[in-house]
Amino acid sequence: MTIDIGNIIPILIVFQSVLFSLVLLTFKGEKRTSNILLSLFLLMIACQFLSILLRDAFNFRRYNGIRVVFAFAYGPLLYLYTESLIYNFFKPKIKYLIHFIPAFIALICFLLNIPTKYFMAPILYVILICYISFAIVKIVKYRRVLVNTISTTDQTNLKWLQWIMIIFTLALLLDIVDYFFIKTRIVLGISLVDLIILFLINWIFFRGLKQPKVFLGISNRKYKTSPLSKDELRLIFDQINQLFAKENVYLDPQFKVQDLSDRLQISTHKISQAINTVAGMSFFDYVNGFRVTHLKTLLSNPENRRYTILALGIESGFNSKATLNRIFKQKVRISPRAFQKQAHFTN
After folding, report:
1. Among residues 120, 270, 287, 309, which one has the fewest Cβ atoms lying within 10 Å of its Cβ?
2. Taking Cα atoms as reference points, which of 292, 307, 296 lies closest to residue 346?
3. CA separation, residue 191 to residues 38, 41, 171, 202 (Å)
């Protein structure tokens, strides 16, 4: 049994993957399914690197075949994990096992000792790239639909999950280079791919757990199937306008379309459709339009010059300086500070 310094990183990967996966399984709540999928992903990483350690420590070349089985599970688990975060109606189904057919075939080949050295790796890389691409497309679509359901994206976007995909893709590309072209060793036999995987594991755990524990689900229904007429949509939109004008609900930074639905007793789908169809904008843009108008009023008042732009922005319903600056410039074409100066000279 021999373990060189190049095995230190794989040992850390196995230890941290198992530890973090067990921690994830202890969390209870609405996203338990997501935690289980992420835990399984980490366990697959642990199993693959454990097989590498056993191969190197005991010179068991046969373990080369089993590690491919675990690798085939990466793509499906990442894809299903992404779906479980995006859709609030996501539940494990038997049909999802179809995603793991390549892993099952690889397992059969391993058990029957069928040589797969020359064709299994290219298939694996193609499948992984496809699944990562599918997952990224899902995230991008989710972020686009998100603007129709909430009034701020600061707490609910999945940027961190996109970064997980980017980091994993980088590791995958380097692994492809390592397999087909040149070894990506740094010093003392330490693999660059192993270092990136170790970084990925820590990123998943420390960054992922900081995200809000409740992710807004979206419906896959389309407006074109709605039976609502233009007059009905106009009536709903008028009710929305009246509520915003009377109660200033937009001043709540966390105001969501579900909150509006609860107030008006109208489904979120109909509300989003009414705003999209009548106003020609998303719920996100609609709410922030009111916030910008409110902020402009505050900025135009000379008595408010003693307050910071951020303080006035928060009072208007924005939850960060970056968000209010970006949205204000989009709506008014100048910064809040420049607008305040113009208003001061005008007055």
Report:
1. 270
2. 296
3. 24, 21, 11, 17
Give the pair of three-digit tokens for residue 81: 């994990």
For 223, the 3-state DSSP assignment is helix
Which residue ranges in the chain fall short of pLDDT 50?
1, 212-217, 219-221
Provide DSSP, 177-238: HHHHT---B-STT-BHHHHHHHHHHHHHHHHHTTS-S---------GGG----HHHHHHHHH
Q: How far is CA 223 from CA 163, 217, 231, in A?
A: 32, 17, 15
Two structure tokens written together for 255: 């105001």
Phi, psi of 191 (to 5 degrees): -85, 135
CB atoms near residue 111 (< 10 Å): 11
Two tokens at 85? Answer: 């975060």
Sequence-separated contacts (24+) of 64-70 with Cβ below 8 Å: 64/117, 65/106, 65/109, 65/110, 65/113, 65/116, 66/107, 66/110, 68/106, 68/110, 68/116, 68/120, 68/121, 68/124, 69/103, 69/106, 69/107, 69/110, 70/44, 70/45, 70/103
- Tell me the sheet residues that pair with 185: 191
pTM value?
0.67
For the chain, the straight-line distance linking the first and the last C-alpha, in angstroms and rounded, comes to: 83
Residues 185, 145 contacting (CB under 8 angstroms): no
Query: Whole-angstrom Cα distance, residue 158 to residue 136?
Result: 10
Cα 134–chain centre separation: 13
φ, ψ of residue 256 in degrees (nearest 5): -120, 165
Place of tokens 């690798």: 71
